[in-house]
S-methylmethionine:homocysteine methyltransferase (Nocardia terrae), 289 residues
Amino acid sequence: MLISDGGLATELEARGHDLSDALWSARLLLDAPEEIRAVHAAYFRAGAMIATTASYQASFEGFEARGIDRAQGVRLLRRGVELARAAREEFEDGRRRWVAASIGPYGAALADGSEYRGRYGLSIAQLKRWHLPRLSVLAESGADVLALETIPDIDEAEALAGLLDGSGVPAWLSFTIDGSRTRAGQPLRAAFAIAAQVPEIVAVGVNCCAPADVAAAVRLAREVSGKPVIVYPNSGEGWDADRCCWTGESRFSVGEVGEWARLGAAIVGGCCRVRPADIERLAAAVAVG
């Protein structure tokens, strides 16, 4: 089993960075790139074998709103990959480590929580046109794989799969879910089926969801797609949008990983509120198991 990293933005915030910006962690590609590299290194040091870049909420429209032109936006997207690769080079123990270029959903670029609703009112063709420029840059950035992550909607998954099909660019496709459905309310079986016929999608699964939703999703993803399954849930805490704070306690338990592995999970990590110490415990549990 491969161990992925945890929440990049979570750890950047823990280091004192204010990410209350429409670009979220991507802002630090411009303002504090070495901090991003340091967080990637912290996750590698904790036992992660995959670093996911700070491009999740990056978009050319978002960059433009900050006065960043297209050429500089391209450089910033590439910088995200370069920082993860530089962090990887700090470790010379002969173990293979991967860099995944994050491609978040259209809703993330809106910075209004739309990625947890989906159903943007855009056609598949419109979503393809929006995703293509960023996907094209990151596909040629030197990353090992594209991370099509936190996808809430079947239409958006179809758009991304259509862009990948025949490209030869490897990617994983990961949905954000609520129970047994996508955040947009569609059956997970139909969502996972999108990956089955696209060779470039090398793994399929879920992220940015409650840990309790993972086991059933792993079983279904494996059954429907026949591909390796990737899962990286949140801590299980809740976000209070009115007070702008997290509530409740973490329910991210390494004790569940054995069950996820038994059901077919091949790659396991964490998303929001999962930190290097959590990944360290996860890696230790996998090593023992």
Notes: The first strand starts at residue 2 and ends at 3.
